[in-house]
Amino acid sequence: MYNPSIPVWMMVYATLHFSAVLPYFFAMLARYEHEGSWTVTQVAITFAHVGLSLSFVGSVLDKRWWIPAAETLRCGALSALFTSLPGFSAGEQDPMLVHAMLALFVASMCFWPIYALSQAKRKVT
């Protein structure tokens, strides 16, 4: 039976990042309801962001070996491109929400390399 033990910090991390996908999804939904159409690029970005984010959150909980590098890249890309994502450009969202999500992505981007190094050091000793 598949039943891995999951540390509390991983469950908190997964919950925060799952919660970070929801405002993005709802922003896109609201934009669609008001403007009525999306460009192909906006649809592709939405599916990529939501799909990758949810897949990676699941992989964090599965403790995949590649997740530190993947999460570092994902959170780094989101930190760099966040305000240019559809639904989060200037004035479309509450500034407090935008800053909180940016802080989450930057903190996560910094966390994973440190975690990977600590795990590598633990394996060596």
Overview of the structural elements:
- Helices cover 77% and strands 0% of the residues.
- It contains four helices and no strands.
- The longest helix is centred in the last third of the chain and has 30 residues.
- It is elongated, with a radius of gyration of 16 Å.
- The chain starts with 7 loop residues before the first helix and ends with a helix.
Brief overview, please?
This protein has 125 residues and is mainly alpha-helical.
This entry's quaternary arrangement is single chain
Poorly predicted runs of 5 or more residues: none
Helix content percent band: over 70%
Compute the number of strand runs.
Answer: 0
What is the CA-atom radius of gyration, in angstroms? 16 Å
Shape: elongated
Number of helices: 4
Pattern of helices and strands:
HHHH
Beta-strand content bin: under 5%
Query: What's the rounded overall pLDDT mean?
Result: 85
Structural class label: mainly alpha
Main β sheet profile:
none
The rounded distance between the terminal residues' Cα atoms is 31 Å
